[in-house]
Predict the structure.
Amino acid sequence: MAEGYTLPVWVAAAARAALLALQGQPFAADQPLDLVQPAEIRPVPVVAAAPLGDGQALAVAHCEPGALLDLTRGLVVWVLVRCQPLEPEQPWLQLEAGEGVGVHGQDRALCHSAYARQLLETNLRPLLPADQALVLRLVFPQGRALAERTSNAAFGVVDGLALIGTQALVQSSAAPDQLALARSELERRAGAEGFNGDLVLVIGENGMDLAPRLGLAPELLLKAGNWLGPLLVAAAEAGVRRLLLFGYHGKLIKLAGGIFHTHHHLADGRAEVLVALAALEGLDGADLLALHGAA
């Protein structure tokens, strides 16, 4: 498939299939899912679903992000569901992190984006009796190993992959069409009435989800992907006067070293840049070697 879905979509499809299995409905390999962003219903495939007894059911999906590079390709998604009476002041949808699912290091709560919860609520609430609560336990069997290749830890997420994503369709942050779209959006904002010259260039989906939580106004956010250099030039040309770069420190280190397209298939150099900057600040000898080894 040329067009792929983000991780929350596969979780929602598996959750829907598991809930229907719990209710005794026949298995359907394609789950009709309201994607919310975009606002349309599409069939999303799942591998299997079955009741387990003791009021529980399990469904399995395989994440398919499409033709674009994405470490979630082929990720196995398990969703275990159970229902219980809805108690006063209790949320009707509760999420539990199983093996391989990222949690916030401070409170151990499952790390998920607002879109991920909205997607689950939109597709599951109509299937659930009003007096019932639904508990979803998510498991990504390879999630812990894959998380080591992400920036999750830099955002306080541990133990696995975060359930992030701000829309259903996987977006390329490296393809030229993504740069064209970002430039077009930048020009639109700069030309709008009331534009005051403020802009936040956000690196990656983690950043897009975290920035509003830290109080940055959503209308100031523009996803930069890997095209930091061209977008910095475009921002200056568009009249941006106050610019904040927000996101993963690894790509910002690349930018500090003059690497203006930050996709790892084109350039890395993070360790070298960090060590060079440390040397310019006076660090030497064994400390530089230790820094290089830790980067």
